[in-house]
Amino acid sequence: MSLRLAVLGSGSGSNCQSIFNAIDDGRLDAEVAIVLSDHEDAFILERARKRGVRAEVMDCGGYKNKFPLEVQEAVARQLRELKVDLVCLAGFMRLVKEPLLRAFPNRILNIHPALLPQFPGVEAWTQALQAGAKQTGCTVHYVDAGMDSGEIIMQAYVPVLPGDTPQSLHARIQVQEHILYPAAILSAVSRL
Ligand code: GRF
Q1: How far is C-alpha 34 from the geometric centre of its chain's CA atoms?
Q2: Contact 20, 32 (CB under 8 A)
Q3: What's the pTM value of the predicted model, to 2 decimals?
Q4: Whose C-alpha lies nearest to ligand 1, atom 5?
Q5: What pLDDT digit, counting tens, does each position of 51-68 carry?
Q6: Phi and psi dihedrals of 97, rounded to 5?
Q7: pLDDT tens-digit profile of 80-139?
Q8: Handedness of CA 18, 19, 21, 22 (dihedral sign)
Q9: Which residue among 8, 15, 46, 110 is best mutated to probe the pocket of ligand 1, counting the most ligand atoms within 8 A of its Cβ?
Q10: Rounded Cα distance, 100 and 62, in Å
């Protein structure tokens, strides 16, 4: 039986698309059971609906960054009911805590646009530029209660080029992200 995934994202969902693409071209034996977003106008929802994948909005009660515990509990219940095996955070901008971590121990992954433990947090590509890094990259890691602090599964390197802007660097990191995430999901599956 193929793997059942849930994808949580707040924005464009290009990483979610890379998971769809990997399923379609046979790199990943999986199906996406549901895509959830904390923003009703996030393009990630559009991508899911276009594919016929269930896509729903989580009502975070008007909080900008907080992921209310009761919402996490409801999401955990929903994902268990849907028999989800792995939860993939893909540009999801809220911190996951106990209710979800407990329901999916070692089964929640995140992709981060830097070589962790360097540059955790927001706009990691801008942080890399400001630090004068010669190279950066992206990381897929298990999610724990911290900020981008869980065990690393896989990483890919991206050089910082002369004249890079935050936009050009992030775009090059994203090319690598789209290769890395499906590969890291496979690696995580082999450890289940
Ligand atoms: C990616 O750069 C990811 O590493 C970071 O947020 C961005 C999401 O992009 N966590 P997308 O929504 O997948 O296009």
Answers
A1: 14
A2: yes
A3: 0.96
A4: 91
A5: 999 999 999 998 988 999
A6: -125, -170
A7: 999 999 999 999 999 999 999 999 999 999 999 999 999 999 999 999 999 999 999 999
A8: positive
A9: 15
A10: 20
Tell me the two tokens of residue 156. 């890919």
Closest Cα to atom 6 of ligand 1: 91
| Spacing, Cα 178 to ligand 1 middle (Å) | 10
- For residue 62, is it left (φ>0), alpha (ψ between -120 and 50) or beta? left
Say how many CA atoms lie within 13 Å of 45 toward its Cβ: 12
Sign of the alpha-carbon dihedral angle for 18, 20, 25, 30: positive
CA of 90 to the centre of ligand 1 (A): 6
Residues that are catalytic: 112
3-class SS string, the chain: CCEEEEEEECCCCHHHHHHHHHHHCCCCCEEEEEEEECCCCCHHHHHHHHHCCCEEECCCCCCCCCCCHHHHHHHHHHHHHCCCCEEEECCCCCCCCHHHHHHCCCCEEEEECCCCCCCCCCCHHHHHHHCCCCEEEEEEEECCCCCCCCCEEEEEEEECCCCCCHHHHHHHHHHHHHHHHHHHHHHHHHCC
Alpha-carbon distance of 132 to 97, in angstroms, equals 33
Alpha carbon separation from 179 to 5, 17, 125, 140, 175 (Å, rounded): 17, 11, 18, 11, 7
- Can you read off the two tokens belonging to residue 180? 């890395």
